[in-house]
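Journal club side-thread
Mid-discussion, someone asked how the predicted structure for our own chain would compare to the paper's figures. Pasting it here so we can look after the session.
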Amino acid sequence: MKALIAILGIAGATFWLAKPIALRFMADADFRRRRNVWLALTIIAFISPNIWMFAFFAVPLYIWTGRKDTNPIAAYLILMHVVPPVQADLTLFSTDLFGLDNYRLLSFCILIPVALGARRSAGADGGPRSRMTDFFLVAYGLVQIALFVPPDLPGHVILQDSPTNLLRRGFLFVIDVFVLYYAISRSCNDQRKITDALASFCLVSGIMAFVATFEHFKRWLLYTELANRWNPADVNYIFAWLFRGDSWLRAQASSGHALSLGFLLAIAFGFWLYLQSRAATRRTRLLVGILFWLGMFAAFSRGPWIGAVLTYFGYSALKPRGITRLFKAVLTIVIILGLASLSPLGAKLIHSLPFAGGQESENFIYRQRLAERSIELIEEHPLFGDQLAMQKMEDLRQGLGIIDIVNTYVGVALFNGLVGLGLFLGLIWSAAMSAFRAAKAVVHTDLERALLGFNLLACLFGVSFMIADCSLMYGVEKMLFVLIALAVAYSRQRNPMKSAHLQGKTIKR
């Protein structure tokens, strides 16, 4: 109950402070509904003995929210981490079907109805189709479904594949990835909805940043007891208390892991670079940015720090007068780092960066060995990878009992080969190029709309770097596909100037 009181106090203060800013991007009724549902579900979660009791109350609330909200995708992003991503096995007649967590509850209750509605209205959509991104997603999914990678079980136990397991993989890919992509890319069909989605994610990320800062300084992880109660066997929460050095507790809020939290806050900072132009004052813009960075520092995940900086550089370079803006951005970062290095805390943070060396050198040695071994295995099975690669990397098993493949690209190439990696890279590249072409087409006629496209592109650039330092776990996977879908949704919008021109030609005829 103490943790619940602390979270409600932090969240209540954040909602109150953020309301004037949030109402610049969303309707008042939507803001109040999303806030109230978030607070209600947090209370329900902390008094529920298990995830099934939480789901009993959450499902009708999710369905109601999805139907009432003018932009269900924004509601989805606010509720995505209302509780940690704890899984419980869904069984039928003593058979385990699949794991159920909050992501999948939201997919069933909000995303599937949105996707079905978007499918019914697809015939009226005259925007560009972005078939290339759709193709890469489906092809990548088929490779993931066809190639069975056995779980890394103790004692070298290798589970055998089966037709039932093949259907399960296909079903989960549709629920976890395809529905998410399709619902967002087809329903966020105008600039207002995309901006609302970005603002909603920043709003809930502000709560997570405050919680993370509190967790670090109080040395108290607020959500771990809830996660342990719902699934005591989840190894990720048994080893949730992570430290850098001897005393720096790595916060995680409700994200499930410190690395996932840093990833989410880096994306929120990227979104804020675009949204801040509509904030009331310069002080507000600065304070919100500082809040996201405080949360990232509390998580102490170094990859997201660099990813956030690269997003800042990318967005500065893409905007008009990009060379000048990029030079100013680089100069700003250099000045900030220089001033920070004068303080003991800043010196410690800078010294911990991957290229600065000095701290936890064994982590970098481990990653170097992992890369070398992975390249050897990829060369042996270049096309479709080696699904039993884990059995050949036993000497890389860590003290926590896992082989930590910390690079998403290496993991895809290792288990799905260069074919899978090419499809994965093509998915990101095609979405980015679609957004870039759409933004360039309106840069001289609608600068605000062009900046939105450049921002999504810069965030994709930063994320592409960050996933080279982590696997697709928890919110990392979700937000990667959210960004890809938002880029596609942006590219599918009609060009107002072109539409007006075509309409004029039709009237003239």
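Post-session note: The chain has 20 helices and four strands.
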